[in-house]
Amino acid sequence: NAGVTQTPKFQVLKTGQSMTLQCAQDMNHEYMSWYRQDPGMGLRLIHYSVGAGITDQGEVPNGYNVSRSTTEDFPLRLLSAAPSQTSVYFCASSYSPYEQYFGPGTRLTVT
Amino acid sequence: SQKIEQNSEALNIQEGKTATLTCNYTNYSPAYLQWYRQDPGRGPVFLLLIRENEKEKRKERLKVTFDTTLKQSLFHITASQPADSATYLCALDFGTGGSYIPTFGRGTSLIVHP
Fold this sequence. Notes:
The complex is a heterodimer. Helices cover 0% and strands 52% of the residues of chain A.
């Protein structure tokens, strides 16, 4: 099993650009989540999904969209990048709301 | 609002000693509490989960306690090794009405000196 994979590993965007962060898992997990991690702030939940076709907002959803058309994939879209979205983004998956498996992260810089 | 507190100062200990990390929370009664390990530049790795009706959980050299009266969890690593050096995060569920809103603490850095 590859576990949770994320692409790209690094990305630099200009303010106003849009992009999609990819996340895939091969463990047949129903739960998938996106977090951002900033220095001194810890992990903060952006959006999550409890199954294909079902998504919901987390703590910091503004500026981000998600969709879940398959069990395996959970992409995160930045609609119009802002410097405040400079962060490390982690995708996670699990069978239940607990015991999450995290991906390696995407380091995003918005200039 | 709900709040999770982990010591922001790094914990430095000598190899072979027991490391004890603290996670305090306020204004909520979580159904469970989790501990994760995070190495620099990598995603967190799940270690242990303890439920509100459990006082203690063990896994190899790891032990977690959960005191719902004190609103505190302690995470112990016995016979610590330099390879245990990492940041340790606690996470609680602050969801209501069946929703799933995991909230992570900021983590405490553990440094084990040989």
